[in-house]
Amino acid sequence: MAEAIARPKKRHTDMTKGPIAKTLFFFTLPMFLGNLFQQLYNMVDSIVVGNFVGPSALGAVGCTFPIVFVAIAVASGLGMGCSVVTSQYLGAKDYGSVRMSVTTSLIFNLVVSIALSILGMAASGTVLKWMRTSPETIDMATEYLFIYFLGLTFMFMYNTIAGTFRALGDSKTPLYYLILSSFLNIGLDLLFVIQFGMGVAGVAWATMIAQGVCAVFSFIHLMNRLGQFEKRADHRVFSTEMLRTIVRLAIPSMLQQLSVSISSVLCQTVINGFGPMLVSGYTAANKIESIAGMPIMNLGMAVSTFVAQNIGAGKMERVKKGFKSALIMVLIFAAASCVLLLLFGPNLVGIFVNREVEGAAEVINWGTYHLVHMAFILFIQGLMFTGEGMLKGAGDMNLLVFCTLTGMVLRTICVFALAPKVGFAAIWFSIGLGSLTEVIIAFWRYFQGGWKEKAIVSDSGDEAPEEAGAEA
């Protein structure tokens, strides 16, 4: 291990000690609130265009999501490489390597984001045509995507920085910047769409500006935080050796995320074939479902950080106890979300459209139909996020790719095979089947134990005994 490095002055969440369930819950809570605000301004985008521009505009924003998700997948995958490495170095108390891993990742992600931004602006219109986007929405969707890709670097920067803060055990700082970004985006949505009449382009510009402000301020904050980690004797702002370590984890993670996004693009081509009203209902339901699934998704992210830090500290038994605690918590969260969707589904979908506009009732009916079925699939997805979070934290990326790719291929095949026979029902059925497949593979890996051999760093000492009540 590198020479001893002074501890950072500010206190970070040390997930290698203390009560497990309490640590996971309070680490998850700021992430949930942060994603809630993020989804809030995504929902406001849809609510504003759905009510003040029309159902076709709502469908235009919705049909761009799979393409946007491809960009997000690349950003998340690359960021995951840094996050796992940073968390394991933090658990091992190698603070110099923590600093070098973060700066190396930021530079690498900047280069990738610029290249992807240029590609996205050039190719998005062609991809929308290939996805069979309806004539009523394709022009608006193309304009939205061009503006989105123009500001892609801001999204990449913020995702990387937020992941870094979480890797350092700080899930509160990203929350504060997301709150700032959310309120700014909402205000700009209302100004650009209602006051200036900019339509779908207005929500795209609002999102770009809000993400830009959030990225710049969070970058300044992160640089100040990194200044508290003393430099190693061989410190470099960009380390090719560190980049190789990050990329070794990032590429499998990126492929895993891309498999999800490509599957979404393919499934969206099927959904687009059902007509603009169904697409609009699905878009509204998707926004609501994203919020309902956030607690279980965020708990999976917390498990990833928890596992990485404890593997870095050599505490394998604590990893197992944390995984069991997370499973109990995720099932409780899924049950609460399921009840809310079943009770309030039609009312929630109705927020996205003006009920007096022609076609609004059809949009609400399709959206409610999808929500009712997805409510029960949340239980399966909760187990999936927890299992895959454990694999990510352990650095078991190859198995994670296999797990996700298998689920996504099965989901895509199922959609295309069943859609001509059962219609829209093929969507939720395929999601459930694909998620269940991923659960089986991830849990097999957990009980088989191969994930224990994938650590990047590890404390060489014997595992310390747990504090009293740590398994609670």
UniProtKB/TrEMBL annotation:
InterPro entries: MATE_fam, MATE_MdtK, MdtK-like
Superkingdom of origin organism: Bacteria
Pfam families referenced in this protein's UniProt entry, alphabetically: MatE
Compartments, record wording: Cell membrane
Keywords: Antiport, Cell membrane, Ion transport, Membrane, Transmembrane, Transmembrane helix, Transport
NCBIfam families to which the protein is assigned, alphabetical: matE
Family to which this protein belongs: Belongs to the multi antimicrobial extrusion (MATE) (TC 2.A.66.1) family.
The name this protein goes by in its record: Probable multidrug resistance protein NorM
Organism: Bittarella massiliensis (ex Durand et al. 2017)
Source lineage: Bacteria, Bacillati, Bacillota, Clostridia, Eubacteriales
